[in-house]
Automatic annotation (TrEMBL):
Keywords: Disulfide bond, EGF-like domain, Hydrolase, Metal-binding, Metalloprotease, Protease, Signal, Zinc
Range of residues in the leader sequence: 1-17
Note describing how the cofactor binds: Binds 1 zinc ion per subunit.
EC number of this enzyme: 3.4.24.-
Cofactor: Zn(2+)
Biological processes annotated in GO: proteolysis
UniProt protein name: Metalloendopeptidase
Amino acid sequence: MILNFILLLWLFASSDSVKIYNSFSANIKENDLTRDKRSIVTAERERWRFPLSYFIEDGLNKDNIKAAIKKFESQTCLRFFKSTRLQADKQGLHFQPHQYCGTIIGNIYGDKAHVLGVDDYCNSSVGALQYLMGYTFGMVNQQSRSDRDKYVDVFMENVEPDDVLGFRKYDETEAEHYGLGYDFGSIFQYGIREFSVNGNYTILPKVILYKYMMGQRVGFSFNDYKLLNFHYCQKQIRKSAGKKLTCLNSGYPDPNKKGKCKCPHGYAGQRCDRIDCSDKKCAKTKYIAKSKYQKLKVQGKKNCTFLIQAPKGHRINIKVLQSITPKGKPCLKNSGLEIKHYKDKGATGLCVCGMKRDYELSSEDNKVLVIYKGLEASNMVQMEYKSYKQKNHHKPSHKPKPKKKVNQKGRHN
């Protein structure tokens, strides 16, 4: 199976949006941009071979590009080396100044240089450069996943006609996600009005509070890196695991450190078998959910990680009565409150910023991880939790609802 390779993306200088077209001139120059609606590439001509050379033209922020590359090297097995001249007939990355920020998705040219057009926006942002390079390596948007309908609603009638490819759903033969869960905190998740032709929603999450964390371009999430490692670094992962290493809680063998697991946010230990350390002021950090609601309250400036666990075969219902955390847009991990209620604990949990009241979540398995980062004395979270057998429980309504009602077509009522 392969990661899907669509074709072209653009990051406009005025925004952090990505446009996907059908074709792109490999030699990015004025008037060389083309659109061809006849085909979509679904496979690499040749897989990238690492270490991979890169060449940076004058006029670009070399420090930012090197910083983006360093992040990939620290979190994956991918390795790069700087070239002092362009070698058009060999695999490599060619960073070139351009009026737009864009590249072909995936290696469709085989043993030739791959051009990455860099505009002012990308040139100034390490996260945007990572975003650009991720597409170069074949990564696609979260809303293009085959299972997206379980997590989001997409309103194609509100999408700009030239941008529909960015919302197309691909089946598992076209885009492989290696069993990783849907990740609203991925750098490849569009915002709720991205590429809207009329200002209405183009995409909305089923759990409505996730909308406040969609569209981040700060950097790769844990699962973004994990996807790259699963696609390119299987040999190193097997070597790291050896015959004994088993990683828990959605961790996986670190391709850069033999015998050690890479752990999702909130987990720690050689095997990701324990939760992150909490401040002493947090007191108790592990709770057993029972059939009746129990209360959990935390307040003030402190860092706490709580594990709520139910018996096997049970799920957990969480009712957050109130949460007051620092404001953030988009809301990111370590910004206040994060609740990991999906089975894949590598996916970014629901991140909640600001003041919110009366919202409900259901877990996909028998564990929920709650991460609280109190940055101010006034910060607090008050919740209730209980366990239930899945077959006897009605799925809760996810609150709060949007301030503006949305009909089935994603328009404001």
